[in-house]
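Researcher: Sequence recovery benchmark, item below. Answer with residues only.
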């Protein structure tokens, strides 16, 4: 009987869509996982994320194992070989099973004539693994990052670039946010312990818990009832720094998928929150998150550069602007960012950020607070962006955040900590 489902061939197709067609792995993976069992779904995710994370190393190994690269209609086999190599290097799957399933993947991909090639390349790697890995030692391919990004990190952070790259190459920890409207963090941690799961709190955040081991949301006490939300530690700081108060008018701009919107309402349940995003598909997730947490907000689709179109001349007491950015601080969570971004994107994104912050500034009340945040670690999008804004707007005053400078606080990704993030706190001066 002909086998029709093969995880390795499925992974190869998905990786090809990311690397050659510029698709987001987070966007295309869920549909591929839907018909699979939990076990197969987890393995598919591990292989896809793993290959995308280690791509330059796998590419270099194939270059040493083959005389010519696979191109054109045979390109999918190049990614299938990557799938096989990744499993041999980074999983505990027995070699015979990897060989059998990966070779079978060629059949499912309708490349039966290349079965022998796949088998030969993988067996050759088995024999020569130590020698091949030694040959790559000291080469930039082992950093698993594109050269343009390595250069930017070296220039911007000469003391920290290696630490940043090392953190980017790790699997991310799973952070949660406990909903203070239902439980204190300590009480929820005791409920978690009763489930046989362990968690650690963060001293600088009132609501954050890091799971000792990642777990499915159905294992988390009260998840369906809105007691807890999956959200990285660094993302949680946005609402913390904005410090929303009951009765205030608050704007969450670029709000999708809604983690920050719901956090604002957990802190200030009687605030009037408007959540705006330009992307209708992602905006639907804001509504889903509000529904699960049984919360109300005014959810609107709109372009941050044209606020008059969705809020008229309305002004807000506080604005959270989580600006569109390069996402270079969340690479460990989304390793495909390394291959979807281009060096030229950074200047374009910085220009877009400047347009949005300039457009929304008139909608902040005098005396009001704006938190400008990105999940980037590049100065052009962060402290240089804020410094330029302050020169354009004499009515803006920067307030330093704990551990930061006037132009903002830059956080680097940490192995057991939060993602890479930037925050700046801006106050609109009262008119004399």
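Model:
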């Amino acid at each position: 009987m002909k086998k029709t489902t093969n995880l390795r061939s499925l992974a190869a197709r998905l990786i090809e869509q990311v690397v050659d067609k510029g698709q987001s792995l987070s966007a295309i993976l869920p549909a591929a996982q839907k018909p699979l069992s939990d076990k197969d779904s987890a393995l598919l995710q591990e292989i896809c994320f793993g290959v995308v994370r280690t791509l330059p190393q796998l590419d270099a190994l194939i270059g040493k194992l083959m005389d010519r690269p696979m191109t054109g209609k045979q390109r999918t086999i190049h990614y299938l070989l990557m799938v096989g190599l990744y499993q041999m290097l980074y999983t505990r799957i027995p070699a015979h099973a990897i060989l059998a399933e990966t070779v079978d993947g060629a059949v499912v991909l309708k490349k039966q004539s290349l079965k022998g090639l796949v088998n030969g390349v993988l067996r050759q790697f088995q024999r020569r693994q130590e020698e091949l890995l030694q040959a790559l030692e000291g080469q930039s391919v082992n950093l698993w990052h594109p050269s343009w990004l390595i250069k930017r990190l070296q220039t911007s952070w000469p003391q920290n670039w290696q630490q940043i790259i090392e953190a980017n190459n790790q699997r991310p920890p799973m952070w949660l946010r406990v909903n203070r409207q239902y439980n204190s963090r300590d009480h929820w941690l005791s409920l978690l312990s009763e489930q046989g799961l362990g968690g650690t709190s963060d001293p600088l955040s009132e609501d954050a818990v890091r799971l000792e081991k990642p777990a499915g949301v159905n294992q988390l006490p009260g998840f369906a009832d809105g007691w807890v939300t999956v959200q990285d530690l660094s993302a949680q700081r946005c609402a913390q720094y904005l410090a929303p108060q009951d009765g205030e008018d608050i704007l969450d701009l670029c709000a999708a998928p809604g983690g920050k919107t719901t956090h604002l309402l957990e802190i200030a349940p009687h605030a009037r929150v408007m959540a705006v995003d330009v992307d209708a598909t992602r905006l639907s997730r804001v509504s889903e998150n509000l529904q699960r947490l049984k919360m109300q907000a005014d959810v609107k689709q709109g372009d941050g550069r044209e606020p008059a179109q969705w809020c008229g001349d309305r002004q807000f007491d506080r604005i959270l602007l989580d600006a569109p950015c390069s996402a270079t601080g969340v690479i460990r969570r989304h390793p495909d960012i390394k291959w979807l971004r281009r060096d030229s994107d950074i200047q374009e994104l910085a220009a877009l950020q400047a347009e949005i912050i300039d457009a929304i500034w008139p909608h902040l009340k005098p005396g009001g607070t704006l938190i400008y945040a990105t999940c980037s670690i590049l100065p052009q999008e962060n402290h240089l962006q804020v410094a330029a804004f302050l020169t354009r707007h004499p009515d803006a005053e920067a307030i330093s955040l704990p551990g930061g400078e006037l132009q903002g606080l830059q956080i680097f990704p940490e192995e057991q900590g939060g993602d890479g993030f930037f925050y700046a706190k801006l106050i609109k001066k009262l008119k004399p």
